[in-house]
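Retro notes (design track)

What went well: tokenization of the new backbones is finally stable.
What didn't: we kept losing track of which sequence belonged to which structure.
Fix going forward: every design gets posted as structure first, then sequence, in one message. First example under the new rule, 347 residues:
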């Protein structure tokens, strides 16, 4: 028995080694599980959409008479899948990348200042020029005090906790950042780690994540309507197909309820400029413990929050400072009728 099993085990090991050499991403267990989840999600979409085209004859006949209806539906399926892969492959905005971007910017500005300063010599005035590639991060990039000062300036004077160094990444975290144990990185404006996407949701991809939820919700509603129309028209024709359709429709309804709740929840977060982590673990964040529950410290009004979320973000590494005590006091004042007329809640 042992002698028979050894060759097969060696064969399987050699086969797995060949697979890992051809597809290096499969050698990582985390990437392998993420890839399996993505394939499973694509297969679910193909199954739900394929059953409509295979068994729904009326839908195929309507497609011949009204091809635009089917094209729009297939376009929604395609756009949803593209948005899924686009969101899952996007960066949420890591603190280390923000530090490198800050170092490059500071180095470029410093090199520009030095290039404009004249250097006096015996023969006359000589302009000192430094190549940007040669200056690199040697001017300010390798000095961690510059980043620490930038983070400390984001907290108002008198704040009890002005710096927090991550024990895993060994970097000073700016406000709204958190270390993700799944990604093993500190994420700017950390919201949550999405298992289905295989990545964190943060400052860099929260908007894409919201659009993906919206497209997935619309696709579920449209697919559910097509399933209900089929069951109403041909329930007594093929009972086996009808049973399968009922099971798939039940799964669709469960997924639709989850997606609707998730869409409403993240829409509320967008309008108030919050994150899931800030809402759920508010008392665990040191600089938010003293802020009242109904005060949203980073909110600038519903309309401005929505505009900044969708359009006005200049860089994925832009960071928001913590408001001062006076601004928090103004935010804690309850709304009055005059505030509603003057649109204080929107501006």
């Amino acid at each position: 028995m042992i002698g028979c099993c050894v060759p097969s085990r060696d064969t399987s090991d050699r086969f797995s080694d060949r697979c890992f050499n051809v597809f290096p991403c499969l050698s990582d267990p985390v990437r392998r599980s993420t890839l399996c989840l993505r394939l499973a999600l694509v297969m679910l979409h193909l199954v739900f959409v394929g059953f409509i085209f295979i068994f729904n004859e009326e839908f195929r006949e309507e497609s011949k008479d009204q091809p635009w209806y089917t094209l729009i539906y297939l376009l929604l399926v395609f756009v949803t899948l593209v948005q899924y892969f686009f969101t899952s492959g996007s960066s949420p905005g890591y603190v280390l990348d923000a530090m490198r971007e800050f170092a490059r910017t500071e180095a470029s500005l410093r090199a520009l200042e030095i290039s404009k300063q004249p250097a006096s010599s015996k023969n006359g005035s000589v302009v000192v020029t430094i190549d940007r590639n040669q200056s690199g991060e040697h001017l300010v990039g390798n000095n961690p005090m510059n980043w620490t000062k930038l983070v400390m300036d984001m907290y108002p004077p008198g704040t009890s906790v002005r710096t927090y160094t991550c024990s895993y990444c060994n970097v000073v975290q700016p406000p709204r950042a958190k270390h993700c144990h799944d990604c093993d990185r500190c994420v700017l404006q950390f919201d949550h780690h999405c298992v289905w996407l295989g990545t964190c949701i943060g400052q860099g991809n929260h908007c894409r994540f919201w659009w993906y939820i919206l497209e997935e919700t619309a696709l579920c509603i449209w697919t559910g309507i097509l399933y209900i129309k089929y069951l109403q028209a041909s329930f007594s024709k093929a009972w086996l197909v009808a049973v399968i359709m009922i099971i798939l429709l039940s799964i669709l309804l469960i997924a639709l309820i989850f997606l609707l709740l998730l869409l409403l929840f993240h829409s509320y977060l967008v309008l108030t400029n919050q994150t899931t982590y800030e809402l759920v673990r508010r008392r665990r964040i040191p600089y938010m413990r003293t802020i009242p529950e109904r005060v949203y410290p980073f909110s600038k009004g519903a309309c401005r929050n929505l505009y900044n979320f969708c359009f006005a973000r200049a860089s994925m590494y832009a960071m928001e400072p913590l408001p001062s005590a006076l601004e928090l006091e103004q935010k804690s004042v309850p709304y009055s009728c005059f505030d509603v007329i003057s649109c204080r809640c929107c501006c």
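Added context from the reviewer: The radius of gyration is 27 Å.
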